[in-house]
Design a protein that fits this description.
Length: 86
Amino acid sequence: MFNKCQKKMCCPTICTQNCPMDPIYEKPIENCIQKDYIHDVMHIVPIHTNVVNNHIYKHSFVPQYSCSEENITTEVYDGCNNFMNN
């Protein structure tokens, strides 16, 4: 079958047909495929609100006036001194 393409011991033969050859093993080609997976991760963040109630007391002073009245009696005796001396 391959008689026409076989080499002789001393010189090579030129083959005009397709001559079978041993396969050449090349360096393998490596394909890299990146697959992305999205994971939804829930984070709980506690938020505390502290309400400070400030009670402000504003003091104001309103005068409350009062009044009092006294009645005094003064006794006047006219000409009384002569009468008591008698």
